[in-house]
Amino acid sequence: MPLKVSLVSADAEVWSGEASLVVAKTVEGEIGFMTGHEPVLAILAEGQVRITETSGSKIIANAQDGFLSMEGDDLTIVAGNAALIS
C-alpha cells in the first residue's frame, strides 16, 4: 500500500498523489517516509522535498516555513512557500 501524499503551500496545492518514498528536511535534519512509518509531526526547514512516485518517477519541490504530519499512510506537508522544481 503506497503513501498518500499532499504537498500544499499557503495558497495552492502543489502536488498530491501516491508515493513509495518521501524525504523532507526538518529543523532536526532530513527524514524519510515509507509505508508503515510511525506518526510524526515536525517543523519544516527550508529545503527540498523529494518524492518517489509508485511508478519510480521523481518529484522535487522546494519548501519552507511549515510543518509535516504523518498519520497512518497519509503524509501531509504544509508550507508557507512551496514550488515544484521537477
From TrEMBL:
- What keywords are annotated for this sequence in UniProt? ATP synthesis, CF(1), Ion transport, Membrane, Transport
Where's the ATP synthase F1 complex delta/epsilon subunit N-terminal domain?
Answer: 3-82
**Domain of life of the organism in this record?**
Bacteria
InterPro entries the record matches: ATP_synth_F1_dsu/esu (IPR001469), ATP_synth_F1_dsu/esu_N (IPR020546), ATPsynth_dsu/esu_N (IPR036771)
- Looking at the UniProt entry, the stretches that span the membrane are none
Topology in the lipid bilayer: Peripheral membrane protein
Compartments it resides in: Cell membrane
Gene3D superfamilies per the UniProt record, alphabetical: F0F1 ATP synthase delta/epsilon subunit, N-terminal
Q: Spell out the Pfam families in the cross-references.
A: ATP-synt_DE_N
Output this protein's name.
F0F1 ATP synthase subunit epsilon
UniProt lineage: Bacteria, Bacillati, Actinomycetota, Actinomycetes, Micrococcales
